[in-house]
Amino acid sequence: MSAFFAGARFEIQALMRVPSTVLILAGAAVFYCWIYPAPYSQQIYRDMPVYALDRDDSPLSRMLLARIDATEELAIIDGSGNRYAAIAALKRGEVLGYIEIDEGFQREVTRGQSPAVGLFANAGYLLAYSQLTGSASSAILSTGQEIGVGLAAEISGGTHSARISQIPFSLAKKELYDPAGGYASFVVPAVAMIILQQTMLIGLGLLCDARRKIACSLPRGFFGRAAWTLGRASPWVVLYLLQFLIIRWLIFPDYHLPSLGHFTQLLLFMGLFFLTIAIFGLLVAEVFASSEDVIPFLLFSSLPIVFLSGFSWPLEDIPLPLQWLSGLLPSTAAVEGFVRLNQLGSGLPGAAWPMAHLALLALLYAVPLYFVTLKRYAHRTSA
């Protein structure tokens, strides 16, 4: 155990030589996980401004626009029917779309025809566009179904049979694991894993030069040196577990993110994740000559890691060599395992493969780290 604690003291001494690194290792992850979800905190847009171009100005067209305006997501701010004003407002960003009802709309409906309702939306804001078109389409379709039932009832003379013929079945939709159906609930848990990984890697890289200046005594024997190497990772595992507690039990509830995971299961999984990152980060720091070399590498690799993690783009749809590369990154297994535990509430059996993946990666990184450590610090070996 003395060798284990000696390795931990070695890393703490390196941190004390570069105290500014504390901002990265002990604060950056919490700060980014707190600030990142802020733009998506509302989860669902409310009262998005839209124009209404009602050229028919009939009771039916006014009823349809009233249905659209009554939805939570949409608010009609102008119904003047001026198409040029609507387009100008859309370009200026004053509205996110406009709805156009042509002249003769009610007449065509009563004749049994199917007139089109124009829906024009700004697709530059993907989430707003999706919710705008979905809400407007739902209001339009539900109104069309009611009208169809009424017309069929006039023909057949029976409301019940008309409703069955027009709406033979209904759809009951329930959002699983993301009750709000919001973007934050989908993206934040996965991004949090990458933030935790990259901040630790960058922080360990910043200590690269400090480690070379510390007088240390590398223990003799395989087990002593293995314990010393493992001890080097322990301070970072503890430090990041504390930050994870803040993120998961303070920040996530503050943003109303769904959380079904059990406390001990999450700590066990995240402890393995942080151990894998720490070993990987120490290996990267030892391979590079100085922090001036390792930091640019870690910074420029952050965005590719996001795309290789499997949540922003399915791993099955990327080339096979990139799939192999993603398998060498702890964040890939961590994203899958954390989502299963925290979002789906699957328990440890559901996260068995990601945990096995992380354990294999920890072993894969530990072997070269042991030999790199032996080569770099062998001349300091104590008698």
Structure description:
- Keywords: Cell membrane, Membrane, Transmembrane, Transmembrane helix.
- This protein is mainly α.
- The chain is 66% helix and 6% strand.
- It has a four-stranded mixed beta sheet, with helices on both faces.
- Strand 1, helix 3 and strand 2 form a beta-alpha-beta unit.
- Helix 6 runs antiparallel to helix 7, helix 10 crosses helix 16 and helix 11 runs antiparallel to helix 14.
- About 2% of the residues have low confidence.
Which secondary structure elements does this structure contain, and how are they paired or packed?
Elements lengths: L1 H16 L4 H14 L12 E7 L4 H11 L4 E5 L4 H10 L4 E5 L3 H6 L6 E5 L4 H31 L2 H8 L16 H24 L1 H5 L9 H33 L8 H25 L3 H18 L11 H8 L2 H14 L3 H4 L1 H26 L6
Q: How many distinct domains? A: 2
Output the helix-strand order: HHEHEHEHEHHHHHHHHHHH
Low-confidence segments, ≥5 residues, pLDDT <50?
162-170
How does the overall form come out from the CA principal axes? elongated
> What summary fits the major beta sheet?
4 strands, mixed
Kindly provide the radius of gyration, computed on alpha-carbon positions and rounded to a whole number of angstroms.
Answer: 29 Å
Q: What percent strand?
A: 5-15%
Quaternary state of this entry equals single chain
Task: Tell me the number of strands.
Answer: 4
SS summary, helix count: 16
Q: What is the straight-line distance between the termini?
A: 18 Å
Structural class: mainly alpha
Give the fraction of residues assigned to helices: 55-70%
How do the strands of the widest beta sheet line up side by side? 2-1-3-4
Summarize model confidence as the mean pLDDT: 84
Organism: Microbulbifer aestuariivivens
Transmembrane segments: 21-39, 183-208, 229-251, 263-285, 297-315, 351-372
Subcellular location: Cell membrane
Domain ABC-2 type transporter transmembrane: 22-366
